[in-house]
Each structure stands twice: as structure tokens, then as C-alpha cells.
Amino acid sequence: MTLACTRTHVHHNVPLPTPTLSLTHTNGKLAYTRTEVEDIMQPYLRKLRKLKRSKPSSLEESVAKTLFELETSHKTLRQELPRFHINSAREVKVPRSKKTAMVVFYPLRFLMLVRKVQRALTSELEKRHPGYLVMLVAQRKITKRPNDVYKLQKVQRSKTSSAVFENILNDLIYPSDVVGRRWRYRTDGSKLMKRIESRLRAVAYVYKQLTHRRASFGFMWNPKLQQVSTQ
């Protein structure tokens, strides 16, 4: 029988986690569930989604530890990170680059929270993971394109492949802005998307790995678009 019980006492000198627990009542004894024991022994696992807590990769575990440390000690981030966790993390080897890209996926509902602290959070993650270029990407779902044209009208624009890929690119280059975009059509019928913003070659490679679409990046040097302050 499973009971919802508030924290009232300690069993076998094991410290209890915060307020409410689901305890299993067996023969008059109270026992912790496996998830609760893991949270007690390894509190940093709370920074991972529940499905990842039992078997996290070494990279995901390292990111979770860093997030937990920042939550407890960082002057700015400790106010925002308590309600934040990640879904997964993966490495992307970038050709002809000294650094490896680390792509950290987090739930879409944390998008605005991450935007507020993304510069500081990315900087701290890169400090604690030397040799990595950290990129934070919100986890989005693509709705399968229906064959029926009437059902197609009911598909949300934000869940189409085009919208998802656009948002992934915005996540990768943030806090930079997309200031230009053009499509180059080739003679074989394929097309190469060219964008102009301030980001690195690694972003183009990671974008291709995530979306299977090619993109090239560059700087805009038009002096008419530059803002100059005069005194």
C-alpha cells in the first residue's frame, strides 16, 4: 500500500529530502522508493529529467553536477536554476576545430528562463568544461505531416519542421540575431541556406547534425548598418 506522508521521522538514520514523500508501507515499516534514495544520495540528479536519472551518460552527469553547484553557490544563477533541469546532453565533434561542441537540451517550458541567464549559464558551463563550446537548445517536437489536406490545416505552425528548425537555429546563435537570410538554388535542384550573423563554424556543423540541413554563416560589414556613437 502506498501512502502520501509528510516528513515526520527518520528511518535508519537516512536524511529525508524536502517536504512531501511517497512512502511504501510494508509490514509496518517505512521504505524509500528507488528514486527518492537516488535523490538523497546524489542530489545533483534532480537537474536531469526522471527518465535519465537511472542511467545518465558521463557528460550528462557532469553537466548535472555543474548545474547543482551553480544553483547552490552562484550569485546570479542560484535564483533561477532551482526550477530548471535538462533533458539530455550530447557531444558533437566539429571538423577542423580545437573545441568540441556540447549541445544541452532542456524542456521548452524553460525557454524564457534560459533566455534571461543564457550568457552567464553558457559561460559558467564552458569554464567548468574546458575544450567545449556549449550550446543550449530547447527540446521541440515536430508533428508528422498528415496526408489529408483538411487535417493539415489543424497542424500548429510552431510544430512544423520548418518552424522547429528555425527555432533551433535561433537557440544556437543566441544572443546573436539573424539579420539576413537568403536561399541559393543550385543547378541540380537543391538549395543552400545562407545566413548572416555573428557565430562560429561550429554552429553550422551542429545545426547540420541536428536538422540535416546545410547552413553557412558570416559577418555583415555594411557600414550603413553599424551604429556609431559620437560625442
UniProtKB/TrEMBL annotation:
Keywords: Ribonucleoprotein, Ribosomal protein
Domain of life: Eukaryota
Keyword Kinase belongs to the record: no
Family: Belongs to the eukaryotic ribosomal protein eS7 family.
UniProt xrefs under InterPro entries: Ribosomal_eS7
Biological process terms in GO annotation: ribosomal small subunit biogenesis; rRNA processing; translation
One annotated Gene Ontology cellular component of this protein: cytosolic small ribosomal subunit
Organism the protein comes from: Leishmania utingensis
Any Pfam family the entry gives: Ribosomal_S7e
GO MF entries: structural constituent of ribosome
Protein name listed in UniProt: 40S ribosomal protein S7
Organism lineage: Eukaryota, Discoba, Euglenozoa, Kinetoplastea, Metakinetoplastina
